[in-house]
Write a structure and sequence with these properties.
By secondary structure, the protein is mostly helical. Helices cover 78% and strands 0% of the residues.
């Protein structure tokens, strides 16, 4: 479970970096890395969507910030 959380967060960090590069330069890194194949591009975005849902679930279910006040 811990490894899954690390992978999901790393996946979202990579997506954020690629999105920032696209926002500031106009160069789509994800499209470049997927060689312009739309299925690969959309599959990665789908995996990122599931990763974000898992991160939200883990924050709700495990309450990692419960002791902080």
């Amino acid at each position: 479970m811990k490894m899954t959380c690390y992978m999901c967060v790393a996946n979202l960090i990579v997506l954020g970096i690629c999105g920032g590069i696209y926002a500031f330069s106009g160069f789509n890194v994800l499209e470049f890395l997927s060689f312009g194949i739309p299925v690969v591009y959309k599959s990665f975005l789908a995996v990122c969507a599931v990763s974000s849902l898992f991160c939200i679930y883990s924050l709700i279910a495990f309450k990692p910030f419960k002791g902080l006040k």
